[in-house]
Amino acid sequence: KAGVTQTPRYLIKTRGQQVTLSCSPISGHRSVSWYQQTPGQGLQFLFEYFSETQRNKGNFPGRFSGRQFSNSRSEMNVSTLELGDSALYLCASSLDGQPQHFGDGTRLSIL
Amino acid sequence: QKEVEQNSGPLSVPEGAIASLNCTYSDRGSQSFFWYRQYSGKSPELIMFIYSNGDKEDGRFTAQLNKASQYVSLLIRDSQPSDSATYLCAGGANDYKLSFGAGTTVTVRA
Prior knowledge:
The complex is a heterodimer of chains A (111) and B (110).
Chain A: E1 5-7, E2 10-13, E3 19-24, E4 31-38, E5 42-50, E6 53-57, E7 64-68, E8 74-78, E9 87-94, E10 101-102, E11 106-110
Parallel strand pairs in A: 2-11
Antiparallel strand pairs in A: 1-3, 3-8, 4-5, 4-9, 5-6, 7-8, 9-10, 9-11
Chain B: E1 4-6, E2 11-14, E3 19-25, E4 32-38, E5 45-50, E6 54-58, E7 61-66, E8 71-76, E9 85-92, E10 98-100, E11 104-109
Parallel strand pairs in B: 2-11
Antiparallel strand pairs in B: 1-3, 3-8, 4-5, 4-9, 6-7, 7-8, 9-10, 9-11
């Protein structure tokens, strides 16, 4: 069974740009969650989607947004990138919230 | 105060010994708990989850949950060099998010 697939694996952007990350969940999983991981803050919850509805959102500015499509694939978007947005962005999928299985992540570097 | 606190590491154990990892949580609404293993440069991998008080064993891993004390632990028996990684404790309530601890880095000495 294929795992969670995140694309791209690596991204380099400059301040002020925007970026879109993609996540395809495990087949049959309808819940997709996004996390940001940094050395200083650890793993922090961004948002969770189920059947195209956002059910919870973490404490991140409005520059961070997401959506989920009818096939459960999800995207997250970060606009007006800042240096502090450099991080590993992880997507996790589950049947209905738990337990969550992570993808390999997208490493985003802001120059 | 963070919702999930893990005992500070790093933790170094000899091969074949038991590694003991501890985690406390502050949200009494948390009902499910997870242990993830993360190798350097990789993403977290789910190794155990526990929902009820008591012990849950899976191979060399045992998770323990005490909701009254708001305490979760992970024991790794017969530690192997391949167990060297950072272990993340996470708690979940009925709000569809996981709160993670900072992680404990374990090194198994051959």
